């Protein structure tokens, strides 16, 4: 697991209520560099999300990486969390990440992954497929 | 005296909590909650009185048929239709409008014939007409709404040309809450010999409806928005139009005799109700409509007008909130977005954490979203059991959204 994700887990340990957790997720999204409009194309679009989501793979030398974006702020924050989780991990390992179990460590699991409409499941599935294809 | 607290006690779900907060249910435009008497009626129908309708001579079939058919008169009474035979029972407005498209319009329309509709129609009152465009060259003529969401009835009337065969129009916008003067439109259309279909999916929930006074040819309702079961509904069809309609679905119940070479149909309205209907759903709808009529639709309308005026004032106080649809006499339906980047889904997710249920999305009104230049909005739609305190909770929730997302 990447250090970046462990840092986020550590930060979340200090956040007791859901408002602060959401605020933190939203802030992570705000801090993430936006995806260029040229990459917001059909090929990178993830369907099954209520808002618009794009995930763009940048895999090289057997190391998994992606950048992403969404027009919804909470989803953007989730993408930032997923980036921390997946980026810099060897592709073979990236395909095996149990994202839902990892997000549970943030106390976000029950609020976010249970809602199919926020598309977390679709995003994780896309990342897994990208990693598998590259492995 | 309209005692909203007492009414709330009739709806068991309203006492539950969501995310540890009392439920504030403001998604009535999508579907309304059910009073205990409707839930009890559904239970009783299955536990004690269930059988197929119109088929058997045994006791249960007779009871079931009686209960089911009684709903036809209840609906006729609710809409003040000429008689119960002008009511076709179905699964809701979507089926009702599709039936008009297939049974009445398709056999009659020639290429180039026009259908006038407004840009604020629900997809259920758009896509069936797009079928007619695709399949037999019908032309759709769209009427825009004004900046405040008002629909000028004269603009609709002016759009009626020599080739217009139908005006298909909502009585109340599910996104903006705009109430349309359908009566004036019907009067002018009748003079020109043009039929009018009124989508009453929202309108029938918020005000007393009299289809004869409106003067429409078709009026479609949806049971689940009327505090009845999902899968229940009806459409009123003027007797003259009923005579012009050809059956659209074939099957049991709609026939008189079937042989290898010959089929004869049942009388209307049965002719348009093929197959085993939603027996229990309709029985539940009947109970829901009786419940509404006992309380009085005019009293419900007055209560909701109070909610609308208060919500309007409170939401106007939030100068970072953009509310779509500001006509004075609108239904208590508010679509809004937060200034800046926040997506309606963000707002909905955060409000849900506060126990507040709203809808976020395009609300099945693509052309209206295009017209407003928006992808989606958040919508708070009030119902008969909502309170002024719930308006305050919505405002508090929105302030939190602004704090978190702003």
Written account of the structure:
Chain A has 135 residues and is mainly alpha-helical. Helices cover 50% and strands 10% of the residues of chain A. Chain A has a single domain (3-134), classed as Sufe protein. Chain: A. Chain A is built from 7 helices and 4 strands; from the N terminus they run ααβββαβαααα. In chain A, helix 1 (3-13) packs across helix 3 and helix 2 (18-31) packs across helix 3 (73-86). Chain A is globular, with a radius of gyration of 14 Å. The relative contact order of chain A is 0.19. With 406 residues, chain B is of the alpha/beta class. Chain B folds into 2 domains: 4-30 and 297-405, Aspartate Aminotransferase, domain 1; 39-294, 3-Layer(aba) Sandwich (Aspartate Aminotransferase, domain 2), CATH 3.40.640.10. Chain B is built from 15 helices and 17 strands. In chain B, the strands form 5 sheets. Chain B has a 7-stranded mixed sheet, with helices on both faces. In chain B, strands 13-14-17-16 form a 4-stranded antiparallel sheet, covered by helices on one side. A two-stranded antiparallel sheet of chain B has the order 1-2. Classes of the chains: A mainly alpha (135), B alpha/beta (406).
